[in-house]
Amino acid sequence: MNTEIIYEIQSGPYWDWRVALDLFLGGAGVGALLFAVLLDERFKGKYQRICRTAAWLAPLLVGSGLLLVMLKMGRPFHLFLAYTNFNPASPLWWGGVFQPLMLVGAFVYAMKWRGDHAQDAGRTWLGRLLVPLAVIVGAYHGMLLSVIVARPLWNTGPTVVAAMLGFASTGIAVVMLVHLIRMKLAGRLADEGHVAHFLDDMLVVRNILVAVLLLQLGTFFLWWLSLKFGALQDQQALAVANEISGPMFWWLGIGVGLILPLVLGAIAVWLGEAAHRRLQVGVIGLTCSLILLGGFFFRLAVLLGGQEDLPVNITF
Amino acid sequence: MAKKQYSMVIDLHACVGCAACDIACKRENNVPADFAWSNHIIQTEGTFPNVKYRHIPTMCNHCSNAPCVANCPTTAMHKTEDGLTMLDADKCIGCRACQLACPYGVIYFNEHEPHQDTPADKAPVIPGCTATLEEVRAKTGVPLPYYNPARAETIPGVRPKGVAEKCTMCDHRLAKGDMPACVEACPAGARIFGDMNDPQSDPRKALDKHAPSVLRPEKGTRPNVLYIREF
Fold first, then answer.
1. pLDDT class for A315, splitting at 50, 70, 90?
2. Taking Cα atoms as reference points, which of A265, A196, A167, A203 lies closest to residue A43?
């Protein structure tokens, strides 16, 4: 039976690439901070240079994300109202309150990494204090979309898990990539001994990253399953999102951001770890770049795809 | 005594689809031309001669479990004692979370300065005959020729750029004991408004006679705009 429905409303997207970039940068910043604290705590100064890179990246990334999302707001300078009007039911309230606090804390933490102190009790304690704050900000970024019941594409459990895993993978990837660039700029990549030491350090990071990427892949599969075989509105949301941003999600988000890095990682392992150091450094750089590229496009695809108007179901 | 719960019952059998409600709302609330606080869904189904036509008036449902309220980071969107869902423009940061959260598409956002679609200030519509907007403004002291100053009694008369806006159930009229403009304008008496917690109110009496339904019940928003006699 032919059915035509006319319902003219203010169409989206209500949130654009700036919000996607905030989710990406904020998430990576949270991941970088947690990575710095974890490495410092667990390995007691062994990865000092990487920790320093991570510690400095955290406030830069979170701050850039916050700035971008404020540019998207109609009245960004009213954001302080979140401090005087409590609405814990809103993830945006949590973000508005805790993201600036984390930004300040992360900046102080980064400042404490100045100089050449392998161990600093004050820094370690500050790092520990920042962990719950970072988790709150991470959860805010993860739950921002998933709590919106009106958007079936976002309103699922795997959305939160995928976002949280995304923080870990992009956080680690951005730290490693920037660290490699710092090594290159400092001329340390020409030093065989230094590179060997770096690659040795990277083994534990690589294992974490591979685990996170595999978990992410599994979560995406669960997400797809829950929508594909879910209620009518879930299926419609998936179909509409596929139409709008399907290629971006599947090719860039999954293909470039997850599968290709896993394949590259496997090739690097297969090539051997001692004989091809220069190649391995290249593979690490490329892999991290791909994870970051995929991480952004996955968020953009989900953000745009989830806002598309669904067919109006006049269900009484 | 229980608090008030203002509600609207729309009798779809009585509604003739004239859209007088939409026009009255625009005029009463100084709503920009491209927004529709009072709106409608038109559905046509089937092939001639077996066709079905439905005209379903829509507006903010003033949900009891309003997702726009839950998602607002500054409590700009809030519930009142009377059960209305209201937006405090002073608190709105323009994040558009309410718009995304609303399953009914009834919240609008002033991305640009409102009322941009009015004719150019300098040129009259009919040269030598009609006044320019600038002249009207100077003469009347209001921002728009069709401006209703009464709207400014409870919220900004024209909502500024950067904030959201939506149906208020004409709270400024309710404060004076009047009916919402859409109810008053409806020539068919299809809009029945009142306090749902009062057993003697018109909407309660209507619901005693007819089983109500709401839009998108699966969303769990508990709308306070209810439809009866759907056909």
1. low
2. A203
The ipTM, to two decimals, is 0.90
What integer best gives the mean pLDDT of chain A? 90
**Residue B3 burial (C-beta neighbours within 10 Å; 0-12, 13-18, 19+):** exposed
Domain interval for residue B131: 6-228
Summarised one tens digit per residue, pLDDT across range A111-142 is 999 876 667 888 999 999 999 999 999 999 88
**Nearest-CB residue to A81 (from B71, B93, B100):** B93
CB nearest to B101's CB, from A1, A96, A150: A150
- CATH classification at residue B208: 3.30.70.20
Any B CB within 8 A of A147 CB: yes
Considering the domain boundaries, does residue B154 fall inside one? yes
Q: CB–CB of B67 and A150 under 8 A?
A: yes
Interface residue A6 vs chain B (CB under 8 A): yes
Cβ neighbourhood burial of A187 (10 Å; 0-12, 13-18, 19+): exposed
Contact B92 A96 (CB under 8 A): no
User: CA nearest B89 in A: which residue?
Assistant: A75
pLDDT for residue A241 is more than 90: yes
Q: CA A276, CA B5: separation in Å to the nearest integer?
A: 73
pLDDT means over runs of 10, chain B (231 residues): 89 96 96 94 91 93 98 97 97 96 95 78 80 82 85 96 97 98 98 97 97 93 95 73
Q: Is residue B1 part of a domain?
A: no
With respect to residue B218, please indicate whether it lies within any of the assigned structural domains. Answer: yes
Q: How many structural domains is chain B composed of?
A: 1
Question: What does the pLDDT look like over A79-119, one tens digit per residue?
Answer: 899 999 999 999 999 999 999 999 999 999 999 998 766 67
Q: Is residue B15 part of a domain?
A: yes
Residues in B touching A72 (Cβ below 8 Å): 95
The alpha-carbon radius of gyration of chain B (Å, integer) is 19
Residue keyed to tokens 């450094």: A281
Are A65 and A95 in contact by the 8 Å Cβ rule? The answer is no
